[in-house]
Amino acid sequence: MPAVNETNLPLPLARRGKVRDVYDLGDQYLFVATDRISAFDVVLSPGIPDKGKVLTQLSNFWFERFDQVENHLLETDFEKFPAELRQHEELRGRSVLVKKCQVVPVECVARGYLVGSGLKEYKESGKVCGIELPAGLTTASKLPQPIFTPATKEETGHDINISFERMATITGEERASKLRDLTLSLYEQAADFARTRGIIIADTKFEFGLIGDRIVWIDEALTPDSSRFWPADQYAVGSNPPSFDKQFVRDWLETTSWDKNPPAPELPSDVVEKTREKYLEAYRVITGTDLAV
Description:
By secondary structure, the protein is an alpha+beta fold. The chain is 30% helix and 24% strand. It is globular.
């Protein structure tokens, strides 16, 4: 099945991100997760078939599981979409209708393990986002307790880690506190559930919006694109466990001479297929069912 790299619907396009196409339907948005994949902030080619369906349906799984937190979903069943949308079969399984929200301009990140940009920051200062951590930690060390490490949303390039105090100047202190507590609560509940499935969620990022004063959980939820999923039986402190996400693609890119500036080298068919298998496996292991493709 070919990848869906772009949608061109006869509707107002509100935004085209690295993965999602967002259409403005007036009182709501149509979110479409394409099969585009990015690494090192560059969109790669070709896409990964069914990746968008994994992101959409896995997010729906988590939103439903934690439905005590208001989320942005209005409709997930393609058969209940307006008739003009049901004409576009490519939307099936990879699109949702969502509420319009004012987006909180901060990524809400929870970390339970030391890896990635957090590890780099720790090596330089012994801290992550201003939070002092014990000495002697290394790659994939489990933290004494999960930490909240917000980041700015950048239109281009990497998001930038910031302190809670800096976040409070952006959102207001009361709202920052609520977002921190909600982020850590969701992460801890999700991590506990994932462990029962043999998965460690090393870290994850959440996005939130506002409807009036209400905080609404938006965008995607605990997917391989927004989280690090590690197989628990292959976890060992001191090394990066193999993950269920696009790390496989990053690792392949590191074997090339690419300088990480566009254009990126084209992904070989075996890398595309292996990456697809990893996304499908993540969905299957976490939900206990096969993806409806």
